[in-house]
Amino acid sequence: DLYRKVFVFRKDPSDAYVVLQARLEQPLHNFTVCLRSYTDLTRPHSLFSYATKAQDNEILLFKPKPEEYRFYVGGKFVTFRVPEGRRDWEHVCASWESATGIAEFWLNGKPWPRKGLQRGYTVGATAAILLGQEQDSFGGGFDPYNSFSGELTDVYLWDTGLSPDKMRAAFLSLRLPPALLAWQSLSYEVKGDVVVKPRLRE
């Protein structure tokens, strides 16, 4: 149980990452991914990388610069422009539904204008899910200059689109529905220089 704990990615640039094990029985037609990050990086970095053998950017949350997030599904992406952070924790949730191709992006409990992405697509179930690196091949192909350095916590993946109430609940660390990946029951493996530490403050 990683309650009130964080992964600290200590080096910059880094070859370290964390592998997450999710129990995916079938391909995803809808999903929501949420996490909280704390970094002073200004270069591009990957936050959440979900690759299949067919598509290395099956699901990717990527931050190319401080005022921009990119959300990939099936190798295509939409960009969400955000105010440059005040060097504080940033909580992001991204959700997608195949039927409409609607991509939702929430930052610190607030929704951004929705965008269209990969309508009718299906996300493959046999996946390598990584924190801290961006996969250019299944489970590998890392560029250290896209690596994450800083602190990550509260990582979740659901096989549904969360309601606005649940999006806000995720930001506030309130009770959440059962998830494919849940921070409080995370199955993970650390590769390289990543340390689990208590969170310094709420």
From TrEMBL:
Database matches in InterPro entries: ConA-like_dom_sf, Pentaxin_CS, Pentraxin_domain, PTX_dom
UniProt remark on cofactor binding: Binds 2 calcium ions per subunit.
Top-level taxon of origin: Eukaryota
Residue ranges occupied by any Pentraxin (PTX) domain in the UniProt entry: 3-202
GO molecular function: complement component C1q complex binding; metal ion binding
Cellular component GO terms held in the UniProt record: extracellular space
Pfam families in the cross-refs: Pentaxin
Cofactor(s) the record lists: Ca(2+)
Disulfide bond positions: C34-C93
Keywords: Acute phase, Calcium, Disulfide bond, Metal-binding, Secreted, Signal
Gene Ontology biological-process annotations: acute-phase response; innate immune response
Compartment annotation: Secreted
Main subcellular location of this protein, as a coarse class: secreted
Family membership noted in the UniProt record: Belongs to the pentraxin family.
Oligomer and partners: Homopentamer. Pentaxin (or pentraxin) have a discoid arrangement of 5 non-covalently bound subunits.
Protein name in the entry: Pentraxin family member
Origin species: Pomatostomus ruficeps
